[in-house]
Amino acid sequence: MTRLLALLFLCSMTTALCGDEDSAVRVGWRKRGTLAAAEARQAAAADDAFVYAIDNGVVAKYDRATGKLVSKSRGDAHHLNSGFFYEGKLYCAHSNFPLKPEKSEIKTLDPQTMELSDFHSFGASPHGSLTVVLHEGDAWWCVFAVYGKEANRATALVKFDEQWREQAVWKFPESVVNDLGGASISGGVWRNGELLATGHDKRVIYRLRLPPKGTLLEHVETVATPFPGQGIAVDPQTGGLVGIDRAKKEIIFATEAEE
């Protein structure tokens, strides 16, 4: 009986930290805190003093010390996705999803004025709906999501130069696509040469890297996280990640687990 109770306690602790659906994979990230945010429906982002909850049509700025709402963005938006801080501005993936034909663009948020404005338009993108935008190594990296079982195999990571000329396209490996169900890639960050990607609702991060040749990303590992999918971003204050729990309307702060 004692051994059984100990086992049940261990299982409950694993569930509390990372969710019960992905206990078969290694714990890669651990929850270190939360912040209530009604707008935490698509993604989260952070700078040193504030955290940002991203909803379809608005970005909300919260004081990370007090948890209080500071202000909300002004400007048109239909379907914002993940956000990425670059040179003092928040770059947000944006699309007209679920409308057809699919059109995507990047919007920028000035965190001082909270003005949301257009940065770059892809028009009717042949790759799908933009969900991730990143800048790394003098290039722009974008994930265009395609939804639906089988159809989501067309989800792609696309590299652009500084003039927005397409340089390369990679597809996601079958081991990742099969795990997405009918959903697609919702978030991602570059970390130590790897793309850490999230899906729509599973508490996992897919560790991926560019192949030495070919057009299929390499699947390094799937690790458990406290984020039930959606957009993630680097937390510059801790060096960890921020994400959301959509159901609980929370921003989640996480740090990397020791192996």
For the residues shown, what is the average pLDDT? 92
What is the CATH topology assignment?
Neuraminidase
The number of helices is 2
Q: Specify the helix fraction band.
A: under 10%
> Which secondary-structure class do the elements indicate?
mainly beta
Distance between the termini: 31 Å
Largest sheet: 4 strands, antiparallel
CATH architecture: 6 Propeller
Low-confidence stretches: 1-22
Number of domains: 1
Alpha carbon gyration radius:
18 Å
% residues in beta strands:
over 45%
How does the overall form come out from the CA principal axes? globular
The helix/strand series, from N terminus to C terminus, equals HEEEEEEEEEEEEEHEEEEEEE
What oligomeric state best describes the polypeptide chains here? single chain
- Find the CATH superfamily: TolB, C-terminal domain
Lateral arrangement of strands in the main beta sheet: 1-20-19-18
Total strands: 20
At the first level of CATH, the class is Mainly Beta
Signal peptide: 1-19
Protein name: Endonuclease
InterPro entries: WD40/YVTN_repeat-like_dom_sf (IPR015943)
Keywords: Endonuclease, Hydrolase, Nuclease, Signal
